[in-house]
Amino acid sequence: MAAGAMSLPPERAAELRELIQRQLLKMDVHGRIREVLAETIREELAPEHQQLSTEDLIKALRQRGIVDDVMKELKFVTDVNEKERTSASKPSTHFVAREPPVLKKTNIDPTRRYLYLQVLGGKAFLEHLQEPDPLPGQICSTFTLCLHFRNQRFRSKPVPCACEPDFNDGFLLEVHKDSLGDGSKMVDATTMLSICDPVHMVLIKTDTFGETTLVASHFLEWRSVLAAENGVTNIAVELLGVGSESKVSVGVLNIRLEMYPQLSKTLSPEITNTQFTLERQRTAEKERLFLVYAKQWWREYLQIRPTHNTRLVKIFAQDENGVNRPVCSYVRPLRAGRLLDTPRQAARFVSVLGYERAPVIGGGGGKQEQWCTLLAFICRNKGDCEDHANLLCSLLLGYGLEAFVCVGTKAKGVPHTWVMTCGTDGTITFWESLTGHRYIHRPINPDDPPLVEQPKPLYPYRTIGCVFNHHKFFGNCQPTDAVEVCVFDLHDESKWKPMSGEAIKSVCSPGAASSVPPFPPLCASAIDAAVTSNEIELQLRLLVSEHRKDLGLSTVWDDHLSYLLSPALAAYELERTTSISAGNEEFQDAVRRAVPDGHTFKGFPIHFVYRNARRAFATCLRSPFCEEIICCRGDQVRLAVRVRVFTYPESACAVWIMFACKYRSVL
Question: What are the residue boundaries of the CEP76/DRC7 peptidase-like domain, all occurrences included (predicted)?
Answer without folding.
Answer: 369-499
